[in-house]
């Protein structure tokens, strides 16, 4: 009887919390798991590599393209309008600039992402059409995560990759936000003002957990791509040396040119992200 009473009180207290606090509570475990993925640990240790970062940018491009297209399309929806801040938060253009810096003007032809990224994008487009109110969970998870760690993570990435300037790191910069802390307060206030039914709120909380799970899967997928690419690189280098000893100096056979082309396409597709 006493246990049931405590459970009931706890549930009531949870219901009375702001949406932002509820999301923080239900995603606590997922947040810890995301921070302990191999990719995120590289950030925390200051060991981010250029291949990691480039591959991450490719996935971020696909994710933010899906998210921001759905936010734009639903900008007048009562659950989206209060948290719609394209001038302050939009990341797509920044990511495009970073991709062009690292890959050149034909960067769109060089994007490769793990299957987990495609699943994430599919979900964003699905709820954009069927349940726009759930976009609030994804927007909150992505944007406030990026805004919270942006400047610190940008410096870590710049130092660990040996970049002499901030070029290629536009993703971490929010020129439209003069005070991240004040803006986050505003954002949470706007988000908490969104009116949702009990069913919609529960759905939004479930979607927030799902958002973290998608990110974890993307991190793991990127790391697997890095591992596969690394192994292919070693094999390609060994085979290349063996064949090169049979060719004239300064010449590359068509077969090796094709192998190197495939390898470069894979090796140039690496990156990273931080929630």
From TrEMBL:
Reaction equations catalysed:
heme b + 3 reduced [NADPH--hemoprotein reductase] + 3 O2 = biliverdin IXalpha + CO + Fe(2+) + 3 oxidized [NADPH--hemoprotein reductase] + 3 H2O + H(+)
Q: Where does heme b bind?
A: 24, 31, 140, 188
Q: Which CDD domains match?
A: HemeO (cd19165)
| EC number(s) recorded for this UniProt protein | 1.14.14.18
Tell me the GO molecular function terms.
heme binding; heme oxygenase (decyclizing) activity; metal ion binding
Q: Which Gene3D superfamilies match?
A: Heme oxygenase-like
**Keyword annotations from UniProtKB, A to Z:** Endoplasmic reticulum, Heme, Iron, Membrane, Metal-binding, Oxidoreductase, Transmembrane, Transmembrane helix
- Tell me where in or outside the cell this protein is found: Endoplasmic reticulum
UniProt-listed InterPro entries: Haem_Oase, Haem_Oase-like, Haem_Oase-like_multi-hlx, Haem_oxygenase_CS
Q: Which GO terms describe its biological process?
A: heme catabolic process; heme oxidation; response to oxidative stress
- Has UniProt tagged this entry with the keyword Endoplasmic reticulum? yes
Q: Which residues cross the membrane?
A: 255-274
Q: Output a single Gene Ontology CC term carried by this record.
A: endoplasmic reticulum
The record's similarity note reads: Belongs to the heme oxygenase family.
Question: What is the name of this protein?
Answer: Heme oxygenase
């Amino acid at each position: 009887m006493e246990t049931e009473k405590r459970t009931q009180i706890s549930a009531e207290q949870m219901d009375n919390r702001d949406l932002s606090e509820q999301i923080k509570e239900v995603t606590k475990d997922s947040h810890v798991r995301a921070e302990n993925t191999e990719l995120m640990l590289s950030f925390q240790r200051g060991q981010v590599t250029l291949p990691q970062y480039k591959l991450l940018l490719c996935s971020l491009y696909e994710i933010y393209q899906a998210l921001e297209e759905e936010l734009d399309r639903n900008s007048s929806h009562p659950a989206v309008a209060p948290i719609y801040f394209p001038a302050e938060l939009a990341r797509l253009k920044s990511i495009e600039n970073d991709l062009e810096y690292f890959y050149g003007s034909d960067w769109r032809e060089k994007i490769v992402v793990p299957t987990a990224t495609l699943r994430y994008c599919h979900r964003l487009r699905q709820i954009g059409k069927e349940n726009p109110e759930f976009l609030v969970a994804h927007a909150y998870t992505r944007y406030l995560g990026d805004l919270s760690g942006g400047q610190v993570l940008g410096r870590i990435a710049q130092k660990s990759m040996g970049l002499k300037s901030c070029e290629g790191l536009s993703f971490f910069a929010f020129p439209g936000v003069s005070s991240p802390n004040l803006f986050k307060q505003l954002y949470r206030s706007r988000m908490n003002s969104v009116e949702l039914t009990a069913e919609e709120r529960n759905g939004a909380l479930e979607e927030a957990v799902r958002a973290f799970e998608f990110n974890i899967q993307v991190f793991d997928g990127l790391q697997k791509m890095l591992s596969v690419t690394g192994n292919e690189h070693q094999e390609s280098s060994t085979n290349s040396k063996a064949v090169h000893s049979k060719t004239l100096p300064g010449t590359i056979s068509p077969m090796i040119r094709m192998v190197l082309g495939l390898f470069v396409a894979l090796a140039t597709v690496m990156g990273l992200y931080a929630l």
